[in-house]
Write a structure and sequence with these properties.
The chain contains 15 helices and 13 strands.
Length: 401
C-alpha cells in the first residue's frame, strides 16, 4: 500500500528548543532583531517533503464515485464489451473487467475486446486509469481462453508434477500469450491444498484437478513457480482461495452454506499461501465458505477475523479480492449492496462481480454510504489507494512509467 506524503516540520522555536522563560526569550529575540545586519537569505530549515506517489496523485484527482468504481472488477457478458458494460464504466466508473466464459476466438479475438476496454479509460470515466482485464487461466478444465495463439494448458494437478523451473518457464510462455491478447491479470494460481485421498469429494478443487499437490509444500512451491512465470511475462497473478477450499465438499459457485470445520488460524495447510505472499503476490482472493475454527459467524469474504489473519499473521499488504459476489450461490440470499458493504467492512478491497445488474446495485449502495459516513469514506480511500498502487506497478496509471 502506498503511503501518503510526509509533511515537513519546521525546527522548534527558541522558546521550545532551549526551554528559556518567556521574558528571557523576548529579550534574546529583540537583541537579535536589533543587531542583525542585512545578508544573504537564510536557507530554510524545513524538513524536505517526499513527493506524493503516483497512486496518491491519481487518487487526489478522483471523484468519490471514481474511487468507488476502482473497487470493482466487472464480468464481460458473453466475453464482449456490450452496452451494459460501457454504461458501468462511463456512468458508474467501474475500473476493471474480466472474461467470464470459455472462448475459442484466440488471441486476436480477445485482443479486439481488450483494446476496446482500454479505450474506455478517460478523465471522465476512470481519471485516465486503465483497466485490469482478467481471466481464469489456470489450466485444464479451468482455462477460459482458447483458440489460435493460446496453448492448451495442462491442469494444475499435472503442473504440480513438473520441475519448478519448468513450470515457471511454461507459465511465462502462457503469460506472454495473455499479454499478447491484452489480458493483464490472471485469477491464478490456486494455493488450496486437498488432503491425500480427498479429490473425489472436494467439488471446487479436487474434482476439477485444480490443486498443485496434496501437501502445502508442493502446492506452495508450484504455485509460486506459476506466479513468478506469469509475472515474468508482465501479467499479475492472484493467489486463491484464502484460507483454502481444499477441505470442503460443496462448490461455492453453485452451492450455498459451504463449511470447512477443520482449518484453523495456524493450520499448516495455510503455508502454501504464506509462500505466495512471501514471493511478493499483490492480490489474494478470499473464499465464500465459512471456516468454523476461524470465524463461525461469517463467510470468509465477510469476516474481519479472516482479513486480520491475512494482514497481521501472514503480513499481506496488497489487494484483498473477493470471490464472485455477483452471481454465486453462496451469496444469493444477501442483497447485493449488503454484500459489497460487508466485504469492505471486513477489510476487503476489490470486488469481483460477474453481472452488471449486481454491480450497479453494489455501487449504488457504496456511493450512498460514502457520502454519509466519513469513516467509510476513509475505508474506501484506503482500498482505492491499494488498488491504484498495484496498478501503478503494472503501468496502468497516467503517471506510471
Amino acid at each position: 500500500m502506498a503511503s501518503g506524503p510526509r509533511t515537513g516540520t519546521p525546527d522548534a522555536p527558541l522558546t521550545t528548543r532551549f526551554r528559556v522563560g518567556p521574558i528571557l526569550a523576548a529579550l534574546i529575540l529583540s537583541s537579535v532583531a536589533c543587531t542583525a545586519s542585512p545578508g544573504p537569505p537564510v536557507a530554510s530549515t524545513l524538513t524536505p517533503t517526499s513527493p506524493p506517489s503516483c497512486a496518491d496523485q491519481v487518487l487526489a484527482t478522483m471523484s468519490d464515485d471514481q474511487r468507488v468504481g476502482q473497487l470493482f472488477l466487472l464480468g464481460l457478458a458473453g466475453n464482449e464489451l456490450g452496452p451494459d458494460e460501457i454504461h458501468a464504466i462511463q456512468a458508474e466508473h467501474v475500473g476493471s473487467v474480466w472474461f467470464v466464459e470459455q472462448s475459442s476466438v484466440g488471441v486476436a479475438g480477445i485482443r479486439a475486446v481488450t483494446d476496446a476496454v482500454q479505450a474506455q479509460a478517460s478523465a471522465a470515466s476512470t481519471a485516465k486509469v486503465r483497466f485490469f482485464v482478467a481471466a481464469n487461466q489456470e489450466g485444464g478444465i479451468i482455462q477460459a481462453l482458447h483458440g489460435p495463439g493460446f496453448s492448451e494448458m495442462p491442469s494444475a494437478t499435472t503442473q504440480g508434477t513438473f520441475g519448478l523451473q519448468t513450470l515457471q518457464d511454461d507459465a511465462a510462455s502462457w503469460g506472454v500469450q495473455l499479454r499478447a491478447a491484452g489480458v493483464n491479470l490472471n485469477f491464478a494460481p490456486v494455493m488450496d491444498v486437498v488432503p491425500p485421498g480427498g479429490d473425489d469429494t472436494n467439488q471446487p478443487i479436487g474434482v476439477l484437478h485444480r490443486e498443485y499437490g496434496h501437501d502445502p509444500g508442493t502446492a506452495g512451491a508450484h504455485g509460486v513457480a506459476f506466479l513468478r512465470g506469469v509475472r515474468q511475462a508482465g501479467i499479475e497473478g492472484t493467489l486463491k482461495h484464502f484460507p483454502g477450499l481444499g477441505r470442503v465438499q460443496g462448490n461455492t459457485d453453485v452451492t450455498a452454506g459451504v463449511v470447512d470445520t477443520v482449518t484453523t488460524a495456524n493450520d499448516p495447510y495455510l503455508q502454501s499461501f504464506a509462500q505466495g505472499i512471501a514471493a511478493g503476490a499483490d492480490l489474494v482472493m478470499v473464499a465464500l465458505a465459512t471456516y468454523t475454527q476461524i470465524d463461525p459467524n461469517h463467510l470468509a469474504a465477510f469476516s474481519p477475523t479472516v482479513m486480520r489473519l491475512l494482514r497481521r499473521t501472514y503480513g499481506f499488504t496488497g489487494v484483498i479480492v473477493s470471490d464472485d459476489l455477483g452471481a454465486t450461490a453462496a451469496v444469493a440470499d444477501i442483497p447485493p449492496a449488503t454484500r459489497a458493504n460487508n466485504f469492505l467492512d471486513a477489510g476487503g478491497d476489490l470486488i469481483i462481480s460477474k453481472t452488471a445488474a449486481a454491480t450497479d446495485a453494489m455501487i449504488a449502495g457504496l456511493q450512498a454510504r460514502i457520502r454519509a459516513d466519513p469513516t467509510f469514506h476513509r475505508r474506501v480511500m484506503e482500498s482505492a489507494r491499494r488498488i491504484l498502487s498495484v496498478k501503478a506497478r503494472w503501468g496502468l496509471l497516467p503517471c506510471a512509467p
